[in-house]
Every structure is written in structure tokens, then in C-alpha cells.
Amino acid sequence: MREPSRRVVVTGLGAITALGHDAEQFWAALVAGTPGVRRVQRFDPSPFASQVGAEVLDWDAAQHMDPKEARRNDRYTHFGFVAAKQAVADSGLVMDGEDRDRVGVMIGSGIGGMYTYESQLAVLAERGPRRVSPFTIPSLIGNMCSGMVAIEYGVRGPNFGLVSACATGSHAIGEAMHTIQRGDADVMIAGGSEAAITPFAYATFCAMKAMSEHNDEPARASRPFDRARDGFVMGEGAGILVLESLEHAQARGARIYCEVAGYAASCDAFHITQPDPEGRGLLLAMSRAIEKAGLAPSDIDYINAHGTSTPYNDKFETLAIKKLFGAHAQQLAVSSTKSMTGHLLGAAGGIESVISVKTIQTGTIAPTINLDEPDLPDCDLDYVPHTARAKTVRAVLSNNLGFGGQNAALVFKAV
């Protein structure tokens, strides 16, 4: 007879975004409705159709990690590594006292070391193959952040990087939850990290007509569910959780934020970039995640939506929510925090999981800013426009979708 799955809880949070370099600073700015989107500063954006982004400014990785290791690793690894250290410190875990074979790391990235890729291609073109850095491959591959965190703490449990485009961070947290549930680890450090505000990334996404061209008002460029939305705004950073089995957390007297109660993954099997216009794949992921959490749709108090500010996503995600929740959809609070953070691609699910946890902890729902004219009748839910809202929240659903038709849904609930 199969043993029941172990319950999994959140005990630590780490976050680096355009709104702040740690989880508390980030959360305070988010609930204040602070826009993190500006004109891009890391390179001259003038040649690009989209010239705005949610950059992490005033950031020096060498202040947070060994300067030599900082030089050898990509910006995406810097973000994930430092956010992981924040989360571990927040959890109160002392690795010297842990069975390090029972601690694992799953930090995903949708793109990986884009800065390294671009800079070393330029070296190859301008100076020849002998001048390419020997650290290029380990710096650009998408599993290196997980490896660096494991090396830092000497933990030998399950360790890899996931890739599922913009669903990556949510998939990483969900698969880490499963790892604990089936008994392969007691502790998992999980989430997503991304640093794709680069010329090549902008050129490619602009070629797809995927990014906002509201360059005259950067702070208002990301406007999910609004009639004037015209594409996503690139963000960067990392969001990391420390997950533990409930028994492990209780045994060491840990502060428990909430439970990761449900997770599901699905595929639209429809198109490489466009979501299913019937919302079938997302509906499947949401319904399965809620069921696995032991809840009914009516038990969900808040949805942190994928809400990318693209014409297709916001319309079809709203449709999927209405199909699943029925009349309860009109009672739900639904917001897109990408209106402030931009879209962090593979890190979106990590950051939005931090937001989901803080929502339960604080009883505050972060708003959707820039929502001046909802795109009726397609976008007709309560998107918590402009201003944060105080509300007792017992259960949160977090959605993330990715190119390739990949969907991930996570359910967090109060313990």
C-alpha cells in the first residue's frame, strides 16, 4: 500500500527584482503599487522597437558573493545564487546540522546565461577563438545556478535546472515539492532566475512583435487586462523558496509561512507561442492543482495571474478562469504583479510564488497597476486595479504559462 504523501511547507523566501534586492524590500514596493519599469539603461535601446524594461539597478554581485566566482558566472546565476542565500538565511536552516544528502536544489532558468552567450560570441568575432573564456560553457548553461548553490552549502540531494520557458519557476517549485513528497529529500531550495535584458534578447522578442512599444511612458508600459496593452515588458531577477517537509520544519521549530498544497503541469498542444484560445491546457493545470491540494475551486481566495499584458494571454487566461470557477470567478481577486515587475520569463514563477506566500502571510493582495480601461467583455474579472487590498487569504492559485504551450499551476494555503 502506498504511503500518503508528506506535506510540504515554505520556510524561507529570497527575491531580487527591479523593486528591491530582498524579499521584504520587494514586497513593500509591490503593495505600494510601485512601477519597476523604466527606459533600459544597460545598453542603448534606441534601435529597438521596445525600449523599456524592469532592470535590477545598483547591483554589484561581488558585494554578495566571492568576487572571483562572480566574474566566472553569468548575471542570471548571480541573481539566483544570492536569492537562494537570502531564502536559506530567512529559513533559519543551519546546514552544518543538516543531513546534506537530504537537501536538494532546483533553480530553473528559461534562457540561462544570455549575457555570457552574447559577450563571448563578440569576443570570438572580434578577437578569435583563443580569447574565448574557458568559463563560457559553465557560465551560460541553465543548471549552473543550482550547482553553485549546492557547492556553497555542500548539499548533495537532487539537483538540476528546469527549462519550460516562462513556466520554469513554477515547475521548479512544483517538482521540488514532489521530490519532498516522495521522500527523496527533506529540504529543497527552489525557484527561478533570469537575466535576459540584453540586445540579442530584445532583438529576438521584438522581431516576434511580443514586447510593448509604449516607450513614451515606461512606467505604464506593462498594463495587463487593459484595452491598450500591446505586449509584455522584460524583467529580470530571481525568486527562491526554501521548502521542507512539515515534519522536518516542525522538528527544528521553524517559522512556517504556509503550505505548498497543490501543483500540476499541462500542455496546450496547440501552438509554439500562442496560448490555446479555449484555455484548455491552463484549465487542466488549475483544476488538477486545486484537486491535489484537497480543495474545491470555491476555496481559492486569490489568483496571481500569469497576466503578461499581451493581447492573447490576458484574454485566454481570463476565459480559462471563468470556465473553471463559474460564478465564483466574479468573487475572486485576480491580479497581475507583472504590471510592476515586468515579465521575468523563467523567474516569473519564482517571484510570483514569493508574492503568493506573502499574500497569505500579510493578508494583503498586491494590485494590477495601469489598469485604466479593462478590455471588456474579454477581461471582466476583479483584477484589483491600482491599489492593494486588505483581505484574509487562505488559499492562493499562481499561474504561469510558457512558449511551447506549457502550463504550471501552484496552490499555496495557510497551515
TrEMBL record:
One of its GO terms (biological process) is fatty acid biosynthetic process. Involved in the type II fatty acid elongation cycle. Catalyzes the elongation of a wide range of acyl-ACP by the addition of two carbons from malonyl-ACP to an acyl acceptor. Can efficiently catalyze the conversion of palmitoleoyl-ACP (cis-hexadec-9-enoyl-ACP) to cis-vaccenoyl-ACP (cis-octadec-11-enoyl-ACP), an essential step in the thermal regulation of fatty acid composition. Keywords: Acyltransferase, Fatty acid biosynthesis, Fatty acid metabolism, Lipid biosynthesis, Lipid metabolism, Transferase. It is an enzyme of class 2 (transferase). PROSITE patterns: KS3_1 (PS00606), KS3_2 (PS52004). GO terms for molecular function: 3-oxoacyl-[acyl-carrier-protein] synthase activity. SUPFAM superfamilies: Thiolase-like. Belongs to the thiolase-like superfamily. Beta-ketoacyl-ACP synthases family. PANTHER family: 3-OXOACYL-[ACYL-CARRIER-PROTEIN] SYNTHASE, MITOCHONDRIAL (PTHR11712:SF336), POLYKETIDE SYNTHASE-RELATED (PTHR11712). The active site is at 166 (for beta-ketoacyl synthase activity). NCBIfam families: fabF (TIGR03150), PRK07314.1 (NF005589). The keyword Nucleus does not apply. This is 3-oxoacyl-[acyl-carrier-protein] synthase 2. The lineage of its organism: Bacteria, Pseudomonadati, Verrucomicrobiota, Opitutia, Opitutales. InterPro entries: 3-oxoacyl-ACP_synth-2 (IPR017568), Beta-ketoacyl_synthase (IPR000794), Ketoacyl_synth_AS (IPR018201), Ketoacyl_synth_C (IPR014031), Ketoacyl_synth_N (IPR014030), PKS_Beta-ketoAc_synthase_dom (IPR020841), Thiolase-like (IPR016039). It catalyses: (9Z)-hexadecenoyl-[ACP] + malonyl-[ACP] + H(+) = 3-oxo-(11Z)-octadecenoyl-[ACP] + holo-[ACP] + CO2; a fatty acyl-[ACP] + malonyl-[ACP] + H(+) = a 3-oxoacyl-[ACP] + holo-[ACP] + CO2. The keyword Iron does not apply. GO terms for cellular component: cytosol. Residues 5-414 form the Ketosynthase family 3 (KS3) domain. CDD domains: KAS_I_II (cd00834). Its EC number is 2.3.1.179. Pathway: Lipid metabolism; fatty acid biosynthesis.
